[in-house]
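Issue 218. Parser rejects a valid record. Input:
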Amino acid sequence: MDELKIEEYILSHIDPEPELLKRMTREANLKLLRPRMISGNIQGRLLKVLASMLMPQNILEIGTFTGYSALCIAEGAPDNSKIVTVEIDDEMESFIRKYFQESEYGHKIELKIGDAIELMHDYEDNYFDLIFIDANKRDYCSYYNIAFDKLRKGGVILADNTLWNGKVIDPKFQNDDQTKGVLKFNSLIKEDSRIDKVILPIRDGLTIIRKK
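Output the parser choked on:
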């Protein structure tokens, strides 16, 4: 199967990428060191649809990067919802805020610059309806352990990059710190009986977790 042609086929049969996000992607490719970290339209449309289905009121995103995924979630979330997105790299702040301010969905989003592990403690347990984890892979288990308590019963956690470009099954990368973080997280999720879980082979892998 030709994966590139399959991706092109999918892109031609789903909702088009919003113009603002196209512009963001172009600027990221010109100015940022790792533009591939942007979610892209297939995952972006999935995030929008999931937010539309789940109708979450309080949403947490761990790892903002450009703000692409936050805007996709905001597009699908209810108008009175609130998305808190946390980015540790303060050099990204002006890039992110520019696009949030230009978006018709930006009023739903609050950007916080800092360490998500510390900032999550500012919220009560069972506060969030939806949590999206897409940050330092070495800390995925730490993010999850705190996020689980902050998530209400029936709430959903989405964890990105859980197939890590195939490195999870490649012995050459088993000692890489980021890969080890993903492997440890995947094992933790597998053994957690408090949740329902599935891994979707979308892009770098997306794990969907529902708190029972």
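Fixed in the parser; the record now loads. The chain has a mean pLDDT of 96.
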